[in-house]
Structures are given as C-alpha cells and as structure tokens.
Write a structure and sequence with these properties.
The chain is an alpha/beta fold.
C-alpha cells in the first residue's frame, strides 16, 4: 500500500511540475513564428546544438565551409524574398568572418540577420580572457543597420522581432543579433516562453509619397526634352514589377537598368537603352532614378560620364537622406517604390507628352550601331577562346532558359557578361553589387539555389572563384543544381605578367598555369567539364543544366585576354614605374 501511495504522489508531482523550455528552443520558435525556415551558417562553440535543434524542429540548416559565404547566401536569400536571410556563426573569428557579409548586405540594402554566439558579458567587459572573447556588439555596429544583444531568455522573442523589423523596414539592411552562450542554456516556463514570442506584423509598411512630391516629379518629367528612367536593384527588390513596366510603357520613356535590375523588363524590350548607355547618360536632360543611388557606379551623378547637358533628377527612394547625396535632386519622391511608381502612373493622362521621335530615334540609332558592332565581335571565333566568344556560347544557351538564376563576378568576366548576357525575368541576376567586391560567387549561388529551388549558373573569373571555391563541397553535399563556369586565363586580369627581377616567384597577378578547376568538383562527387572552344562550352553547359546536378566547367580563356581591373582602370592608380 505504501508503494502505491508513493507512486501516486510522484505522478502527481510530475503532473504539477511546469513544462520548461530553454534559450535554444526560444530562438528557433521565434524564427519559425515569423515564417523563417532556413538558416545558413557554420557550427561550433556555442551554437552547434542550436543548429542541431533547428534541424530537428523542421528548419533547414545549410552548413558552409566559411562564414562569409554563409552570410552572402543569407543576404541574397533576403534580397530574393524580402524576408531577412539568417546567418548563424560561432563567436569572435566566426563572427568576424560573417561580419564581412553583413557589411556587404548593409551596403547593398539586402535584409539579413547575422546571429552569433558570444562570450559572457561579465568576462568580456573585464577583459578576463574568455574563450574567443570579443565585444562583438560594438564591433558590428558600424557595419550594420542595427545591432542588438539578448541577455535574458524572456527577451529572445523581442530581440528576434526587433532584428526582423530593422532588417526589412525602410531601407533594408544587415542586422546583428548577439546571443551569449549563457543565454542559450537559460530555462523558463514553456507557457511563459511561448507568450514571450512576437509575431512581427507589417514589418515593412507601405510609405505613400506626398501628393506635392508626385506633382513636382510629373511636372519635371513633362517639361523634359530627353527623359530617361534609370532602374536600380532597389526597384527589383521592391517586387513592383507590374507597376514599373506600366510606367515605362505608358510614359514611353527609354530606360536603363543597372546590372541587378536587368530583367525587370526583358533586356530585349524596345525601350531598353542598355546598348546606348554612355549616350543616354550624357544626353538626357531629365533622369528618373527608381531604386538607384548616384554612387560610384553612376560616377556620382557628375563628370564626363554625364556630359555637358544640364540635368534635372527625379529620385524615388524610401530614404529621405539619400536625396542630394551627390547632386541636387529637383524632385524627390519619398516612399516605397510600388506606391511611388503607381502614383506617377496615375498622373500620366492622355495628354501627357511622350518623348520626341528625335530623342528615341537618336537612341535607337546608337543602339543599333553598338549592337551591330558587338555582334561582329561576338561572331569571331579565336583560338583559344576570349571572353566574348565564351560568353556568346553561354548567352545562346541561357536565352532558352530565362528562369535560370545567374551569378556573376570577376573583373573582365563581370564587365563583359553584364553587356552580353541578356536577362528576361526580374531578380535572376546577382553580382558584385554596390561595393563591387569579389568573393560573393558561391555564397550567392547556394543562396539562390536553396531559396528558389531552380538552376543556378555562376559565371566566375578564376580570381573571383578563388575566394569561395571550397564551397563546391557545400554545393555537392546538398546536391544543389549549380553550374559554376570558371573563366580560366591563368591569373588576375590575365596570366601574362612576369616578375621584373627574373626571380623564382611569379608576378603578383599570375596563377598556376593550365589549372584544371573541373577536377575540384569531381573530388566532391560533382561533374566536371573542360571546355577549350565555344562548341565544347555550349555542350558542357547544356549537359550541366540537363543533369540538374552540381557541375563545374573549366572554360579555358586566352591568357592574354583581359584588361587591368576590367573597365575600372581609372580606379587603379599606377606608379611611375608601372606606366613606363
């Protein structure tokens, strides 16, 4: 009888004992509550169990070989979805590796959240020498849109909610969320923990432009003789594709897309001025900027790039502080791009003047001349291949598959591909972006493949590929449909430089001659191709896409092809000795 009574008492105690949760599960639950289902990262102290538990709870964890590339994958996922991509890293060195990607995301206005484990505050603040001790929060602040630290389990829900809202609201960007190791093991009542979580509502609310600003913009456009619409990647991010197309076509104004805005309208659209870029920038008297900034990519809106003709700018941007950042903006329109463009469309009535035939005719004449010149260049078939003949082969395959995601980086590889590879659908082209950096290739490719589930073709210079090439193993591990094409000309820019001293060391820009990058992916179980002619490249790319498997094509390019810094030679100062 005593045994029965003791067992009954124990069962009653177990019934009354509260169900508990911990910091690990609260972080996961907070992310899942906000419809975030994928984490990109690299495990280690103190976040290994967080990754394991996230996978056990149904989230997808994509493990990388380097945190920078995980961060780049998270950033491009955020750009594609308008939800913050999540990158998870360990403390100190892992955090610093992820910080590069976070800074790039902030600069490019990609919404992402870098979540890093960290050492305990009381030890860090007294500098007592903890494992991987670092004040990560303050290190992140200059490079992030916002940075938060959570110290108590009951605040995890609020911390995640604030990070999400900061990442996507207004001008998107990178956010840092610091989770000390002690936080993750904290426990609390499960029901109270559930109630502490926050479902973010209307994280990026519409911001309607003022009627006065819309009228002012329409007046400026109406009085222009040679108007031009310039589309930036912010226009692509906004997913206001239908509104932007309506504005372009209803107004009849020629448009020029920046590289990651290519495909908002097909590059073959009659109003595209891409093939006459220099001409329209110099000759336009009114430029309507939509989601584009007058930064170095547009010569800061001044100088010989823009010609001598006086210009008035209409600028649509969600950030008021962007206005007048380089030149005076005659008509700022502040708000979300969809709302602003819709307001402009509504103001274009039956009597709204279309651009003159003189202006559109001059553009078409220049376009046709440049396209004929480019066609003649692309028609050549030198041996070995050069950038143009190789890209022609890629272009002809990709135009049959407009749904394919294209990643592109390098110097010459990036510059030539931008003008040769046409895009037909929005948010399908991902490249070096606002900073013009190398190393985004495999991270962007993995992020695009995981997010879209569709084929990715990464067109890489051999130098650019070197930054992230080890992620081929990640691509193979997750069996992703990524075809990497390495333009191999034996070096940075080209492989012909020599050591002026005649010493044993090769020149600073030279790589191993005749490297076989295709063998790298074969080592991880992928499929490698070696292509030395356009015909071989065409066949290899078609087979790679058909397979849907991890593939790499080593595209052998003439090592004399290529120019220093691509088309950015003016940004690379030369010494007197180099000029001789």
């Amino acid at each position: 009888m005593a045994d029965v009574l003791e067992a009954t008492t124990q069962e009653a105690a177990e019934v009354k004992a509260p169900q508990m949760t911990d910091g690990f599960h609260l972080v996961i639950d907070a992310l899942k509550l906000n419809d975030i289902d994928t984490i990109f990262g690299l495990v280690g102290i103190p976040i290994t169990d967080l990754a394991r538990l996230a996978q056990a709870e149904g989230m997808r964890f994509i493990g990388f070989r380097h945190e920078q590339h995980a961060g780049n994958a998270a950033a491009i996922a955020g750009y594609m979805t308008q939800k913050p991509g999540i990158c998870l890293t360990v403390s100190a060195p892992g955090f610093l590796n992820g910080l590069t990607a976070l800074a790039n995301a902030t600069t490019n206005c990609f919404p992402m959240i870098l979540i890093s484990g960290s050492s305990e505050r009381e030890i860090v603040d007294l500098q007592q020498g903890d494992y991987e001790e670092m004040d990560q929060l303050n290190a992140a602040k200059p490079y992030a849109k916002a940075a938060y630290r959570v110290l108590n389990a009951e605040d995890i829900g609020i911390g995640v909610a604030r990070a999400i809202r900061a990442a996507v609201s207004g001008r998107p960007g990178g956010v840092y969320l610091d989770l000390p190791a002690k936080l993750l093991s904290q426990t609390m009542d499960a029901l109270e923990g559930q109630h502490s979580l926050v479902k973010v509502v209307d994280a990026a609310p519409r911001q309607l432009p003022s009627p006065d600003s819309v009228k002012r913009a329409l007046d400026v456009i109406k009085n222009a003789k040679r108007p031009l619409i310039l589309l930036g990647k912010g226009a692509a991010y906004a997913q206001a594709d239908a509104q932007i197309r309506e504005l372009v076509e209803k107004s009849g104004i020629p448009y020029l897309p920046m590289s990651m805005a290519k495909g908002l309208l097909p590059d073959t659209h009659a109003q595209s001025a891409s093939a006459a870029r220099s001409f329209v920038l110099q000759e336009a008297d009114c430029v309507v900027l939509i989601g584009a900034r007058l930064n170095w990519l547009l010569a800061h809106g001044k100088g010989k790039t823009w010609g001598a003709a006086p210009k008035q700018f209409v600028q649509i941007d969600i950030s008021p502080t962007e206005i007048d950042s380089n030149v005076a903006i005659a008509a700022p329109v502040i708000g979300d791009i969809g709302s602003c463009v819709s307001a402009l469309v509504a103001g274009i009535g039956a009597g709204f003047p279309k651009p003159s035939s003189e202006w559109t005719g001059a553009i078409n004449e220049r376009k046709n001349k440049n396209l004929e010149k480019m066609a003649a260049t692309l028609a050549k078939n030198p041996s070995p291949m050069n950038f143009h003949s190789a890209l022609r082969a890629i272009r002809d395959v990709l135009k049959t598959r407009p749904d394919i995601n294209v990643v592109n980086e390098g110097a010459n590889t990036l510059d030539y591909a931008r003008s040769i590879i046409d895009m037909y659908e929005p948010r399908k082209r991902f490249d070096s972006g606002t900073w013009g950096i190398m190393g985004i290739g495999m991270g962007f490719a993995i992020g695009a493949a995981v997010t879209s589930g569709k084929q990715v073709v990464a067109i890489e210079g051999d130098s650019a590929f070197g930054f992230s090439g080890m992620e081929l193993e990640t691509i193979c591990r997750y069996d992703l449909p990524v075809c990497t094409i390495v333009f191999n000309n034996n070096g940075v820019y080209r492989g012909t430089d020599v050591n002026p001293t005649g010493g044993k060391d090769v020149a600073p820009t030279v790589f191993v001659k005749n490297a076989r990058y295709d063998k790298m992916i074969e080592a991880f179980g992928g499929i490698g191709f070696n292509a030395t002619t356009p015909e071989e490249l065409t066949h290899a790319l078609e087979e790679a896409i058909k397979s849907g498997k991890p593939t790499l094509i080593n595209a052998v390019i003439d090592e004399t092809a290529g120019t220093e810094s691509g088309r950015l030679t003016n940004l690379n100062p030369q010494s007197a000795a180099t000029k001789k």
